[in-house]
Amino acid sequence: MTAPIYSDDFLAFWARYPRRTAKRDAWKAWQQEAPPLADVLAALDWQIPQPQWQKEDGQFIPYPASWLRAGRWEDQPFTPLAPSDAFARVAAKMGRTQ
User: CB neighbours of 8 closer than 8 A, spacing ≥ 6?
Assistant: First the structure.
């Protein structure tokens, strides 16, 4: 079987992605999804340091093909509410004020 010829954009993604597993499958997903490299790299900049990607030595980092097929470069960073903000939202739904 002949090794595929990868695009420069895919190789930049592959070099940055922390879990380098199933490269050919990731290449197929890259071709199918055709994500903008700048968006992919920007998403990885904030996703890689996230606790769920760091815990247990990266055990929960998705395979690259799964990440691509799910369009994860379109995700938004998680910003937890401050406790007072969370209370205010719940109280507002219940018709109460602080």
Answer: none
Structural Rg of the chain based on CA atoms: 18
Q: pLDDT of 11-23, one tens digit each?
A: 999 999 999 999 9
pLDDT at 98 over 60: no
User: What distance in Å separates the CA atoms of residue 47 and residue 67, rounded to the nearest whole number?
Assistant: 11
CB 17 within 8 A of CB 67: yes
CB 64 within 8 A of CB 39: no
Is-contact 69 33, C-beta < 8 A?
yes
The values of phi and psi at residue 5, to 5°, are -100, 115
The structure's pTM equals 0.77
